[in-house]
Write a structure and sequence with these properties.
Blueprint (H helix, E strand, L loop, with lengths): L4 E6 L6 H17 L6 H4 L4 H12 L6 E5 L7 H7 L7 E5 H4 L12 H6 L10 E6 L2 E3 L9 E2 L2 E5 L1 E4 H12 L11 H9 L4 E4 L5 E4 H10 L1 H8 L11 H12 L2 E4 L5 E4 L9 H10 L6 E4 L7 H15 L4
Parallel strand pairs: 1-2, 1-4, 2-3, 7-11, 12-13
Antiparallel strand pairs: 4-10, 5-13, 6-7, 8-9
Helix pairs in contact: 7-8, 8-11, 9-10
């Protein structure tokens, strides 16, 4: 019997004046200047969540329920879903940060994806097995739940990275710089260090499989780690990746399967500075890759309207939707 799997999408509309005012109130200019911490680019929404939702409905109709985690906001997906998926049977429910942080409301508001992802397991009614999507991640081809979950085993698309090598690379990256950037690998390395592990798994910008019961047990035993990771309103260099805690621990227990991520993800990161037909080249790359499973459109609002339209035409055709 196939296991029940939910999808959880973390979404924010950073162009909402009320949300931006809160970021400025709590973060000031320092926190909101650097995009790796709290700059406008981290929160800008250009409709990516509709691609994310549509890809789940189109390519993963076995999903039990879609949860959209928000900060007192609503992407108003009902009309979009009704227009493109009139026979949809997958319920979609909003979950406010206040629900995730019940008992920890003093840490709200939060603008920190690492803090939010640490609390996803606390969604009331969430299935044990779930896939965590950032709103800019989408499925790029038909998927099966067995790609991530089978029996007691969780499967990830990732590569094993030695912690020592990652630590040396981070030291070199920060050398002589006033602002020490906090990137994709850094919270993974922090999680490995917490577990005294000599490795971690570097996973791409793709759906992240998680197990609710594991997090419930782990943080039940280590509430200090939960508290330390959610207290920061903006990303902070001491924070860890909660999925990495799960993956390293599961690997040690023999309940994690690791699949090669090579060729499975197309990561789009356009900007006005990137010339030479960046979007056209990336779209050709995606179209010519028969192994493509996932995609991520990062910072779409940072590029030209022409490139935005190019991507929108490609994804709407691929998912057979209209905006």
């Amino acid at each position: 019997m196939r296991e029940q799997v939910d999808a959880v999408i973390a979404w924010v509309d950073g162009d909402d004046p009320a949300h931006r005012a809160k970021r400025l109130q709590y973060g000031g200019k320092v926190a909101t200047t650097h995009n790796d911490v709290g700059g406008d680019m981290r929160f800008r929404a250009t409709g990516e969540i509709y691609f994310c939702i549509a890809s789940i409905l189109r390519y993963a109709p076995w999903v039990r329920k879609i949860w959209i985690v928000t900060d007192n906001q609503d992407p108003h997906a009902e009309e979009f879903v009704a227009r493109n998926f009139p026979d949809n049977k997958i319920p979609i429910e909003l979950v406010d940060h206040k629900v995730l942080f019940r008992g920890y409301e003093h840490y709200l508001p939060t603008f920190n994806s690492l803090a939010i992802s640490t609390m996803l397991w606390r969604i009331p009614g969430l299935s044990d097995r779930f896939l965590y999507f950032n709103d800019d991640v989408f499925l790029a081809s038909p998927a099966k739940s067995e790609m991530w979950f089978e029996g007691e085993k969780t499967y990830i698309y990732a590569r094993k990275v030695p912690a020592t090598a990652a630590r040396l690379l981070r030291w070199g990256k920060h050398l002589g710089k006033k602002h020490k950037t906090f990137g994709h690998k850094d919270p993974m390395l922090n999680a490995a260090d917490l577990l005294h592990s000599g490795f971690f798994f570097l996973f791409p910008h793709a759906p992240v499989p998680m197990r609710r019961q594991w997090f419930e047990r782990f943080f039940g035993q280590r509430p200090d780690l939960l508290d330390s990771n959610i207290r920061h309103r903006f990303r902070e260099p001491s924070q860890f990746s909660s999925p990495t805690l799960f993956y390293v621990s599961s690997y040690r227990e023999g309940t994690l399967g690791v699949r090669s991520p090579k060729g499975t993800t197309c990561f789009f990161k356009p900007s006005v500075e990137k010339k030479n037909g960046y979007m056209a080249r990336k779209l050709r790359e995606a179209e010519s890759n028969p192994a493509l499973l996932f995609g991520c459109i990062n910072s779409l609002g940072e590029t030209t309207l022409e490139e935005q339209e190019m991507f929108n035409q490609w994804i709407t055709h691929k998912l057979n939707i209209t905006l």
